[in-house]
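User: quick one, fold this
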Amino acid sequence: MIGKTLFFYISWRFLKQLIAMMLLLLFLIVTVDFIETLRKVKNESGVSMGQIFLISLYTAPFYIDKAFPFACLFAAMGTLSQLNSKLELVVARAAGISAWQFLLPIAGTALIIGILASTLYNPLAINLYESSLDMRAVHIKGKARTNATSKTGFWLRQKDENGSSVINAELARDGGVLLDGIKILRFDENDLIYAQISAKSAVHQGNSWLLSDVTITDSDQKITAQATMILPTNVSTHYLLGSVANPDSVSFWNLQDTAKKVASSGLNHLPYLVQFQSLLALPFFLIAMVIIAATVSLKFVRFGQTGRMILGGISSGFVLYALTRLVTSLGSNGVVPPLVAAWAPSVIAILFGMSMLLHQEDG
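Assistant:
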């Protein structure tokens, strides 16, 4: 049985590798985003370098959130290869410790990290990302705020007592209840256009839209300007939320509630359930990455095929990730149940990796 000292030693080695991977990703993302943001604001005054850096720093965790599985894969490969190259695993094997025992600290650490990533890091990253978007809206001229419940190029068709309307907005914000840059075509009962409306913004008020800075062009090309206008609507706030929200950008703790709201509007709520189950399955997905790393990292010294095995591990990780995205898409479209779509890749990868390790270790 692996001792406590060796357990924490291997865990700490893996954790250091993982932290190094994440810091490297953070540096790369912040650097690229900082340079790009700096380019956009080069002609604007009143924006300091510190504000730009803070915007980039707040943006980075949102994108790093997607990289946890690969960081875990590379960290596990790096840890095992280092232990192997220094003959520490050889000594452990000679002391009667099996591969399963010295994989336990890495798998246990990955499990804890996966739980923290889903329940704490994911909501924090989304909150920081939305804060960065608020800062961009304030400091970068002409930069509209878009967040987890926003969508650019928004289209909506609705019915009212006079016929129907097609609404196009440059940006739908806050779950679709706020629209910016609006163009509306109004149709009569015979589906003939009888008016065109342009407005700066619109606010959903339950059973109507309140339009601001309105310009109306009727069928005779007569143009009328109004400060405000009321446009009736039969579209609910839940329907609007389902039309604009991005499941990847909804906090873990809000996904189920959002799914219920979207389902009540009649829209497809499955992507939110798939995302929720995927976050629940993330700890086991990280364990799957650790096992894949073990299958290609434990015999470097014995066979001296480092390059090929590293390439095999990276390829296996990418194949697993691609398979996960494919099954997730199937679950989001109702082809397979969300529970199966989220958990199947992790379970299959763990079983497949364990089979390979059993073959390698026990023949």
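User: anything notable?
Assistant: The mean pLDDT is 85.
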